[in-house]
Amino acid sequence: METENELLLAIESSCDETSVAVIRNGSEVLSNIIASQINSHRRFGGVVPEVASRHHVEQITLCIDEALSEAEVSVDELSAVAVTYGPGLVGALLIGVSAAKAFAWAHDLPLIPVNHMAGHIYAARLVEPLSFPLMALLVSGGHTELVYMKEDGAYQIIGETRDDAAGEAYDKVGRVLGLPYPSGREIDELAHKGSDTFHFPRAMIKEDNYDFSFSGLKSSFINTVHNAEQREEILNKEDLAASFQASVIEVLTTKTLRACREYPVKQLIVAGGVAANKGLREALEKMVAEELPDVGLIIPPLKLCGDNAAMIGAAAHIEMEKGHTADYYLNAVPGLSFN
Ligand code: KG4
Ligand code: ZN
């Protein structure tokens, strides 16, 4: 179904970013409008689903207009409309899905459903072409997974978190430190000013599988802070952050290295909001340079690590090639997974 000048309008609304992009041939970003709602959620210490849906309703048509005008593309030049249909918050997803269906129907365009996590992986395609087989380390607010891909569009989860996602652990620990939501970036910054003096546990690091667990680390962190408070002792926030981050990074890099040695991979992709973490990026760059000289590492730029529609357009290009289109019965699937 590929055309020489395939222009996709992609829509993302799975959580707290309303985003619309125009993508040419699956890899060229002509526009990528991202309306973040984070200021509205921050005072609640997390994303409030009802508030998220209301913001998406207000923003979606404005974002569609802006994405088309920034890309200088008219509706009749579009090849298809792509939309995230899961995983995510059901009410939030439904706004994007409804908008995409209406747009596709009104302009008689094919509708392409996209898995949000596939989108995170395909953000890498906006940086450089993919070489298969490859391994993807997906680290976001809701997911922590190692995904093996033999070819475009084929996802095999070889390991995942048994409890909290990496980003979730960052956000929960940040709350205990009194940091605003989401806390990943702030903890990353604090961590660079401190050192690993607390030696928190590295859960499951020695186990012969690719699964993760971050709830023990989170509890250990919270207990350390609460015990100190009871003793009226003040702990160094930078060292706490550095110790927490050291544990997360050591577990993620160790398991990813093992997976890349076990599977015949040509590339390693790191994706999702936590891929914005400076400490993690540096550690993975060092690991690949020293231990995996034949593996190419792709970590997308910060703007493409968080939720955005450009990555949805990149993943949609592959779905389009495979002829995976949806009809107007397409529904949001909040618990959508690869398997
Ligand atoms: O992928 P994403 O934007 O949304 C989901 O699909 O979940 O990821 C958001 C998560 C949040 O938990 C946030 O704290 C985390 O990514 N995050 C970071 C950093 N920037 C964002 N975590 C660690 N270090 C960062 N620099
Ligand atoms: Zn995401």
UniProtKB/TrEMBL annotation:
Keywords: Acyltransferase, Cytoplasm, Iron, Metal-binding, Transferase, tRNA processing. Substrate binds at L138, V139, S140, G141, G142, D171, G184, D188, N277. GO terms for molecular function: tRNA N(6)-L-threonylcarbamoyladenine synthase activity. It comes from the Bacteria. It is found in: Cytoplasm. Its EC number is 2.3.1.234. Its main location: cytoplasm. Binds 1 Fe(2+) ion per subunit. InterPro entries: ATPase_NBD (IPR043129), Gcp-like_dom (IPR000905), KAE1/TsaD (IPR017861), Peptidase_M22_CS (IPR017860), TsaD (IPR022450). Fe cation binds at H116, H120, D307. Its cofactor is Fe(2+). Pfam families: TsaD. It catalyses: L-threonylcarbamoyladenylate + adenosine(37) in tRNA = N(6)-L-threonylcarbamoyladenosine(37) in tRNA + AMP + H(+). Residues 28-313 form the Gcp-like domain. The keyword Iron applies. It is an enzyme of class 2 (transferase). NCBIfam families: gcp_kae1, T6A_TsaD_YgjD. Belongs to the KAE1 / TsaD family. Required for the formation of a threonylcarbamoyl group on adenosine at position 37 (t(6)A37) in tRNAs that read codons beginning with adenine. Is involved in the transfer of the threonylcarbamoyl moiety of threonylcarbamoyl-AMP (TC-AMP) to the N6 group of A37, together with TsaE and TsaB. TsaD likely plays a direct catalytic role in this reaction. HAMAP family: TsaD (MF_01445). This is tRNA N6-adenosine threonylcarbamoyltransferase. It comes from Enterococcus larvae. The lineage of its organism: Bacteria, Bacillati, Bacillota, Bacilli, Lactobacillales.
